[in-house]
């Protein structure tokens, strides 16, 4: 009897035998979005704004919480940060969030849309016609090591009129001083980094700001929570990205820095 005929008869007795030979309808060939299922948006995504000339760095957690920051190392500036949540229908990502600018600019509502190919590409719109194109960073799946964040980092943040320097200890404790225009002294920032509960290669962070004498009124004495990402890049010092908001998401703060 023909071999396929025999196996077809075995289907009545063993579903496993059929699936093993003919293939499972749930098989996605390792892409995470096959068989009519949804793509997976989680990951560290790096790319550019297609509506501007800025770099884009984005984290989407396993629960589809999105953190995105646009910045330019060449122009020593950060531009905006978006925090939101979304969901997937096939490859289509939709969600809502808030966008935060530099200084004491107004917080705006963000309608998030995009097209995701699991562990490959994420292109879309962060609201206000801020469009982007990004690629998945395999560093998202690397083992997390808090000690890699330890050291001195210098870059720019969303409130300073000059560079900002971070000092991070091996246990995750950190401090920074940001010079706000028109203030007599630097605005102090003190907090902690910790391993994310997801186990993926990013940190969560909590920190607080100093007094209104040296900090913006919306930040003075406030506590914030967010995420931190450390990335390695060819021929460059490691890159640190921090994005955070207060609990009501009425104020945000974000920064990039290079290890010194």
Mind explaining what this structure looks like?
This protein is mostly beta strands and 260 residues long. The protein has two helices and 16 strands. The strands form two sheets. An eight-stranded antiparallel beta barrel has the order 1-2-3-4-5-6-7-8. An eight-stranded antiparallel β-barrel has the order 9-10-11-12-13-14-15-16. The longest helix has 8 residues, at 3-10. The protein is globular.
What is the helix tally?
2
**How many extended strands?**
16
**Shape estimate:** globular
Beta-strand residue percentage: over 45%
As a percent range, the share of helical residues equals under 10%
Largest sheet: 8 strands, antiparallel, barrel
Structural class: mainly beta
What is the C-alpha radius of gyration, as a whole number of Å?
22 Å
* Assigned CATH class of the domain at 141-259: Mainly Beta
Keywords: Signal
Protein name: Lipoprotein
Signal peptide: 1-19
